[in-house]
């Protein structure tokens, strides 16, 4: 990275991937960000990473967000200038729901990062499509039924399986869940939706309220998923099925029913 007269030249191999990960994560701790860069094999030295992060913060491309997450290390998010740099570089970004509601959404995105990292470390992860890209795609006619937290492709039973991922940290209203179930009847791009809930009661609420006919909705506990990943026992919304390993569901063909 070369600095001249208060400006900086961005490294396509080092700086751009780091900025992209900050943007795609919504909010991210320094430790999470380093782990993403290490797994992506764009950074192997914590000292070099910390220096790079400080420089990007100092030039206004990444923002520090002090006091957002109690008991955690420093939290970062992309700045408007940083987002502009990435858009100019071709990043798929057209805004993202809930990120501007800072205090309510910070913990959500930090914990979702942990799910992402757990899958990546396990080597089960084939592809993680972030919310930024999903929200951008949903402005086109080839769209998902809703703005998911992510769409995930994993290696499963010798093949590849895809599912949409939603992290349910706090409950919504019953009416909101009804609207979600109705929207999912129009889903055509994925067959399975995985809801990871923060507690058992919330898991049961989703199981009982989000019961579309067109797609499978699986509901599990995020704490169990962090330990068991694709072996996580899940409930199938709208049915009495429970404690079914997620991987068993992902390999089953889904018979779609056309909405009447």
Question: In a nutshell, what does this entry contain?
Answer:
By secondary structure, the protein is α+β, with helices and mostly antiparallel strands. Helix content is 40%, strand content 22%. Helix 2 (30-39) runs parallel beside helix 5 and helix 5 (102-122) packs parallel to helix 9.
Could you characterize the architecture of this molecule?
Strands 6-7-8-9-10-11-12 form a seven-stranded mixed β-sheet. A three-stranded antiparallel β-sheet has the order 3-5-4. The radius of gyration is 19 Å and the shape is globular. Residues 1-6 have low confidence and may be disordered. The chain contains ten helices and twelve strands. It has 260 residues and is α+β, with helices and mostly antiparallel strands. Helix content is 40%, strand content 22%. Helix 2 packs parallel to helix 5 (102-122) and helix 5 runs parallel beside helix 9. It folds into two domains: 8-98, Arc Repressor Mutant, subunit A (Orthogonal Bundle); 124-260, no CATH class.
């Amino acid at each position: 990275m070369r600095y001249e007269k208060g400006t900086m030249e961005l490294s396509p191999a080092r700086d751009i991937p780091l900025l992209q990960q900050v943007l795609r994560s919504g909010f991210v701790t320094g430790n999470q960000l380093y782990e993403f860069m290490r797994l992506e094999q764009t950074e192997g030295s914590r000292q070099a990473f910390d220096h790079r992060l400080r420089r990007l913060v100092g030039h206004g491309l990444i923002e520090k967000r002090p006091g957002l997450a109690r008991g955690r290390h420093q939290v970062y998010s992309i700045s408007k200038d940083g987002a502009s740099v990435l858009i100019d570089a071709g990043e798929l970004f057209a805004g993202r729901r809930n990120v501007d509601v800072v205090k309510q959404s910070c913990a959500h995105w930090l914990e979702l990062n942990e799910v992402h990292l757990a899958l990546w470390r396990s080597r089960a992860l084939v592809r993680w499509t972030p919310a930024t890209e999903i929200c951008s795609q949903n402005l086109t006619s080839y769209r998902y039924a809703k703005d998911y937290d992510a769409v995930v492709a994993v290696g499963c039973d010798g093949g590849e399986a895809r599912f949409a991922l939603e992290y349910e940290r706090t409950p919504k209203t019953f009416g909101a869940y009804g609207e979600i179930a109705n929207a999912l009847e129009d889903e055509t791009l994925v067959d399975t939706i995985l809801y990871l809930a923060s507690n058992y009661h919330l898991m049961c609420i989703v199981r009982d309220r989000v019961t579309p006919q067109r797609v499978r909705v699986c509901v599990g506990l995020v704490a169990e998923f962090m330990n068991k990943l694709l072996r996580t026992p899940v409930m199938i919304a709208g049915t009495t099925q429970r404690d079914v390993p997620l991987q068993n569901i992902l390999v089953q063909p889904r018979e779609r029913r056309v909405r009447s």
